[in-house]
Every structure is written in C-alpha cells, then in structure tokens.
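Sample entry copied in:
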Amino acid sequence: MTSDKPNPTACVIIIGNEILSGRTQDVNLAHLGTELNEAGVTLAEARVIPDVPATIIETVNTCRANFDYVFTTGGIGPTHDDITSECIAEAFGVEYELNETAHAILQAHYKPGELNEARLRMARMPAGAELVENPISQAPGYRIGNVYVMAGVPVIMRAMFDSIRHHLAGGSPVLSRTVGGTIGEGKLADKLGEIQKRHPEVDVGSYPFFRGGTYGTSLVMRSRDEEELDAAAEEVRELIRSFGEEPYEGEIKLKDQA
C-alpha cells in the first residue's frame, strides 16, 4: 500500500544554448527521471533555458522555492559561456568565489602549468557551496541549499548524480505496468476514462502507435499503490479482451517489427 506522506518533488533545469538550438541532444533528463523515481523522488517539472543570466537566476529562484530538490545541468565548464555558477551565486545572494577545496582538487589533477585561468573557472562557485564529487574529470559540481549543480556532459553528470544519490531523502518509488494491444486509441477512450475514475491513485496514460502497417495502443499505468495499480492493470486487460484480442504485457513487439 502507498504511504500517506507524499514523495519529495524535484525539478531539473537544463541550461545551454546548444540544447535549445538542437546542436546538442539532451539525454540527461531521461536518466535523472529514472534515477529519481527509483530514489522515491517525483520529478515534477523540467525546464530548458538559455545561457542568459537573468533567465538562469529567475528560474533557479522560482524552482528552489517550489520544489524540494532542484538539479541543474550544464554551464560549469571552463569557457566564457559557462556562467551557471555566477548566476547561482547571484540567485542565492552570496559571493562568487574560488573554492579552496575545488582549487586543490584541480591542482592535483593537472600537471604544473596546465591549470590556467580558464580551467580555474571550474573551481569558482557560490560561497558556502558543498562539493559534489566528479570521478571522471575531477572538476566538481556542488550543492547550495536544495540546488544541485552538475555538469552537462552525460557521463560526468551521471557520475556526479551517483555520488549524491544516497543523500536524497525519498519516499516510495512509483511502480508501473504497461499493457497494450493492436486496437485504436479511439475505441478504448470511453472505457479507459471510466477505469481512471475508479482508480484515482493510478495515473493511466494512453500512447497510440503505428508500426509495420498496424495501429495499436500502449496503456501505461503508474502508481505508488501496488494493489491499486494491479487492479487497474487487470481492468485494462479485460477491456482489451472485450475486443477479442489478448493483451500484450510490457512494450509491444510486432512480428514484422525490427
């Protein structure tokens, strides 16, 4: 059964002109959504914003006031357009300064003479920030308040998140069931709405597809309450059977699908 206490909520802020232009495809959001769910934290919102100081500051302040956790990705590298840390400092009203521990990490990582002013930017962050370990390239992320600031490079972001995951105070993970069939979404709509009303604790999503010349619908049910989830899933199976078809479990695989 589900707990009466709601799960903590989170927002992901993806920062970078390269994401908005389509030059770089973001893959961090899907990973964070999966990992946060498993940690019992509900990813309630995600925003993609440009490298514009006023936008970053306003977005961070809005999100940290409305969610239990905020995770930012991007903008903490060594180049001129990596301005996330400066903006986070301004959002919190603290100094943007050289973090001595981060400085020492970079000094140990680079050969003598290699830690130039550009790379030193990666050791500058808001005063009072707590470092987030980066076992890949060493330049750390950090936490200030309820905001975790991480790199945009996927392999580094994942390593950073792995280092903080055990610090997150989560609730029960959201469970899911996927049931479907080669039936058009419109045929299922009315009865599906009735199932949703009978199981308000379950989020029922309908996802039509067209593959190999065949129309069909995947029905995804999500809930923290396993009993309610299983009951709703069984009603969906019966709905599909009422059209003379045996439901698929999980992702639908058609015979002529590659």
